[in-house]
């Protein structure tokens, strides 16, 4: 006999626990984050399994893997929680100067350099007693911001966001071609596009933008050339090291060489079509936040002002 799901109603707390487990893929970490017992997490997941007649999560070597139903559920739960949260927190006065809890910031790897340090200075000025957690932006960052598991995200504005997440553009950036100072191409008095594309390339993987395929391949193809991608990585330091020790050319924004400007320089060549593609709104340095999150809401303006 089929169980009547109405006898196992789902409350908001169960959904909140589900969302944190979905992000962490670990019941122990979820319990720690929520400051509850692991058994309470397990009971909540069991309620969901019974209600939906679905496993929800399947154990794997990498932790808990969500089922297709859980993936679909994760897309709507943040909206449900935000609707309730916005009502509950509208009149709360969050004082950043006295806050002593955690503030979690997820950054795309390209911002994990001087930018991250400067950001920590800005936030520490606003909230001197807060504990800052710096994380790497990945495919779970946006759901984590939606559920207030992460307070602030930093990435380029090409990222497509759900309706409950807002972004503020801080600073415009663009893409360049970089090579080491001793690169043979700089021995030429003049160099052409053909000269540039004769070399191997390093391309950074930016989550949500070119995860599956370097978009630059298609762009360069429209110019009549082939882009020979030798290395792809989301590890910026690895790409820099390759460029410094080989004749590979790097496609990246100005953020890529903030700390290596004396060893790597721009290949000064006019690629009008290439530049047009990358110079739109897609490459604004931006902060992402859940507007009902009182912590981020009070700090964002200071980040924007500091640029």
TrEMBL record:
Residues annotated as domain HTH lysR-type: 10-67
MF-aspect GO terms: DNA binding; DNA-binding transcription factor activity
Keyword ATP-binding carried by entry: no
Keywords in alphabetical order: DNA-binding, Transcription, Transcription regulation
Family matches, as PROSITE patterns: HTH_LYSR
InterPro entries assigned to the protein according to its UniProt record, in alphabetical order: LysR-type_TF, LysR_HTH_N, LysR_subst-bd, WH-like_DNA-bd_sf, WH_DNA-bd_sf
Family: Belongs to the LysR transcriptional regulatory family.
PANTHER family: HTH-TYPE TRANSCRIPTIONAL REGULATOR LEUO-RELATED (PTHR30118), HTH-TYPE TRANSCRIPTIONAL REGULATOR YIDZ (PTHR30118:SF11)
Stated name of the protein: HTH lysR-type domain-containing protein
Native species: Photobacterium rosenbergii
């Amino acid at each position: 006999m089929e169980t009547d799901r109405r006898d196992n109603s789902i409350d908001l707390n169960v959904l909140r626990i589900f969302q944190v487990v979905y992000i962490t893929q670990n019941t122990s970490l979820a319990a720690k984050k929520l400051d509850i017992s692991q058994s309470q997490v397990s009971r909540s997941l069991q309620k969901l399994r019974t209600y939906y007649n679905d496993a929800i999560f399947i154990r794997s070597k990498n932790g808990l893997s969500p089922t297709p139903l859980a993936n679909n559920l994760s897309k709507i739960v943040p909206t449900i929680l935000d609707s309730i949260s916005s009502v509950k927190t509208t009149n709360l006065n969050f004082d950043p100067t006295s806050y002593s809890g955690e503030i979690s910031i997820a950054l795309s790897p390209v911002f994990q350099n001087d930018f991250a340090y400067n950001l920590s200075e800005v936030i520490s000025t606003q909230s001197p007693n807060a504990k800052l957690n710096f994380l790497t932006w990945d495919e779970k960052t946006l759901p984590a911001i939606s559920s207030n598991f992460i307070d602030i995200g930093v990435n380029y504005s090409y990222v497509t966001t759900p309706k409950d997440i807002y972004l503020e553009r801080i600073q415009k950036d663009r893409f360049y071609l970089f090579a080491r100072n001793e690169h043979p191409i700089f021995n030429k008095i003049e160099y052409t596009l053909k000269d540039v594309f004769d070399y191997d390339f390093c391309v950074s993987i930016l989550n949500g933008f070119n995860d599956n395929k370097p978009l630059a391949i298609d762009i360069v193809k429209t110019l009549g050339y082939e882009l020979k991608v030798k290395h792809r990585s989301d590890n910026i330091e690895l790409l820099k090291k390759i460029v410094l020790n080989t004749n590979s050319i790097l496609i990246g924004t100005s953020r890529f060489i903030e700390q290596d400007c004396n060893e790597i320089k721009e290949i000064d060549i006019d690629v009008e079509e290439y530049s047009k593609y990358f110079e739109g709104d897609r490459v604004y340095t931006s902060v992402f936040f859940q507007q009902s999150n009182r912590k981020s809401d009070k700090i964002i303006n200071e980040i924007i002002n500091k640029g």
